[in-house]
Amino acid sequence: MSLLRARPDFPLLCRGQLILLLIPLLAITSCHRKNATLNEPIDQLYQTALQKMQKKKYYAARSLFQTLQARIPQEDREMLPLVQLKLADSYFLSGGVLNLGEALTAYRSFLTYYPQREEAAYAQFQVGMSLYGQVLAPDRDQELTFKAITEFEKVERLYPDSSYVAKAQSQILLCREKLAAHNFVVGNFYYRRKNFLGAADRYRFILDKYPQYSRTEETLFLLGNCLVATLNPDEARLYYVRLVQEYPKGRYFHEAQARLKEIEKG
Q1: Nearest residue to 90 via CA among 108, 63, 111, 72
Q2: How far apart are CA 167 and CA 244, in angstroms?
Q3: Alpha-carbon gap, residue 142 to 132, rounded angstroms
Q4: What pTM was estimated for this model as a whole?
Q5: CA dihedral defined by 259, 264, 265, 266, rounded to 10 degrees?
Q6: d(CA 219, CA 205)
Q7: Contacts of 144 (CB under 8 A, 6+ apart)
Q8: Separation of alpha carbons 126 and 99, rounded Å
Q9: pLDDT tens digit string along 234-253?
Q10: First-last CA distance in the chain
Q11: d(CA 1, CA 138)
Q12: Domain boundaries, the chain
């Protein structure tokens, strides 16, 4: 190519012919390098794949793990499980619904074949994470959130001594936050349409099932409003009082105090 740059008068046709001759040579070189990589010893190829993962080249790493999976004997109980787990990780870290679905299948497959391995707790945790990553917005169906909770709960039940128990418990709290948010969205939908009975049912459900919800203060205030609107001031007082006591610096503190005074006046 340096000759082409050195001679601008080189016939264009000849240049084109030379380029056409170089294309197959480049392809052969690339193919040779690829084959050389794939023919590396299994241990070396595994390390190459791990390096790809560290560089976030997940697709390239996945291809190498798949090659390894085909080359390693099925009776292998050392390298093969590690390869299968890393293959699942390559899907998970790539992200996106399709990749998370593939990761979910791969982690479950690992647990089917290697339930007693040390990495099983991690694989079980990742089953929950693969579902959690597909959870929809609060105004959408939350079936996957319930499924994720079920899988996270298995971590503590099946692997109580694992370091992933605490992580699974944290994820369960995040899942419950999403479930509470879903009910809050529905409750607000009813509230805006002055269906105060329907809204009150949702707000009560949140306070009962999800006491750690991040918007509990607002839930208490809205529930009190619903009860006032449905002529149930005595019960409304209970929720306003709770709000004032638990959130003295909260956003709705002064409004709740004002509502309590109105209730006392009758």
Answers
A1: 63
A2: 33
A3: 10
A4: 0.83
A5: 90
A6: 10
A7: 131, 132, 134, 135, 136
A8: 13
A9: 999 999 999 999 999 999 99
A10: 93
A11: 59
A12: 215-266
